[in-house]
Amino acid sequence: MNFDELYKKINPRLKRIARKHNGHGLFIDEDDLYQEMCIYLLDHYKSGMPEDINESYIAKGCEFHILNYIRKNRCKASIVSLEQPLNDNGDTTGDIITDTAKPANELLDKEIIVEEIRNNGFSKKEKAVFFLLAEGRTAREVGERLHISHVMVLKYKKKLIKDMHRVTKPNNFLLM
User: Residue 131: what pLDDT?
Assistant: First the structure.
């Protein structure tokens, strides 16, 4: 069988394989994979591919080749210190990365909300549910701790959210 016949027979399979493995390599797309398999196939045909090999075997060989190709060419993540100088000026990664800390006024607003919950008309059970949820506990954990069902915890949570919207309206802060 000459190369053109082999290529016409195996071409749809190679395209499916390329589509299947597309995205596994960061900068390697479907066309790159397809071309790499075609080059691999041509190289092996030129070097004397045995006549008794079936198409499935050839396609699998091409697939193994591109998997290896992806593995070799995949970008590796590198660990960088925030204090390590990046250039001659002494700039560090820590200097370049912007600070994503929340502004003080947002933190203050959260503290005011917590104080409102502590002092304004929430039952002891609602306060307990709020503070346990704020600690990061699940509804089931809160329910076990307070000896109530997790469904009741969810009802308290829903009521707290509704009441917090009422308490934290922007104009309410001016009335304090």
Answer: 83
| CA angle (168 as vertex; 167, 170 as ends), nearest 5 | 125
DSSP string across 103-118: PHHHHHHHHHHHHHHH
pLDDT in tens, 19-37: 888 876 556 788 888 898 9
In the chain, what percentage of residues exceed pLDDT 70?
Answer: 70
Neighbours of 117 (CB within 10 A): 20
- The answer to whether the predicted template modeling score (pTM) of the entire model surpasses 0.85 is no
List of domains in the chain: 3-73 (no CATH), 104-174 (1.10.10)
Structure tokens given for 157: 């949570």
User: Which amino acid does the sequence have at 8?
Assistant: K
